[in-house]
Amino acid sequence: MKRLMLRLTGLLLVLVLFLGALGWLGQHDKVNNGLYRTYYGDNGIPSTHVDVYQDAATTYDVDWKLLAAVHRVETIFSHSSSMRSSVGAIGPFQFMPRTWLGWEYDTEDIRGDVPEDEVDLTDLSLIDQYGGLGRDGDGDGKADPHSLVDSAHTAAYYLSEHGGTTSDSATSIQNAIFEYNRSEQYVDDVMSFYESYQTDVVLIPDDRLTVKQQAAYYAIRYIEWFKTLG
């Protein structure tokens, strides 16, 4: 009888730990980040984003797959654990606030950060006044750096202005990518995804609809949780 009680107690403890782990994992940003890095990010493009890329690309004559590659490297298709970089870049395509608003705006931060409670970054009249990059991609009367549509249009505009159009050479496109983020490693990363998308584009449902995606999702959750035990 005593042995049976111990077994029941043990099973109950396992059940409690399991349920507790599920609750913790369901709110763990790093797990979602890991999922996109190891599965979504390396194996395809979220199907829900394609129309956004294509519309912005058509508007500014760039390849939509180039936009997808930039979005993948910048924020893993907007699924990074933080949508603000260590230097202050914000939004799906990671623009510095002052780049978005315009470098003629006077601020003490030389890196280009502007507190969002200091000025309305979405105000088109201010963007025009200060010579900013921000674009109103969805026609709602504002340019929001946190909007996928607006930031995709802004990224397409920037790339096209720096030699990244469909008629430009591969070298010119690489230079445009470098202007977007002055890092040779960044150029290599974007070009790696861009070139892979030229030969094989896998459109992935954004809500883990397939069995394979579900399995990957829970496997990564378990691995992340298991690491914390050590």
Give a written overview of the molecule.
There is one protein chain. With 230 residues, this protein is mostly helical. The chain has a domain at 43-202: Lysozyme, CATH 1.10.530. Helix content is 58%, strand content 2%. It has ten helices and two strands. Strands 1-2 form a two-stranded parallel sheet. The longest helix has 24 residues, at 2-25. The two termini are 34 Å apart. The model is unreliable at 12-28 (pLDDT under 50).
Query: How can the largest sheet be summarized?
Result: 2 strands, parallel
Hey, roughly how much beta strand do the residues contain? under 5%
Q: Overall mean pLDDT score? A: 82
Shape designation: globular
* Separation of the first and last Cα atoms: 34 Å
CATH class of the domain at 43-202: Mainly Alpha
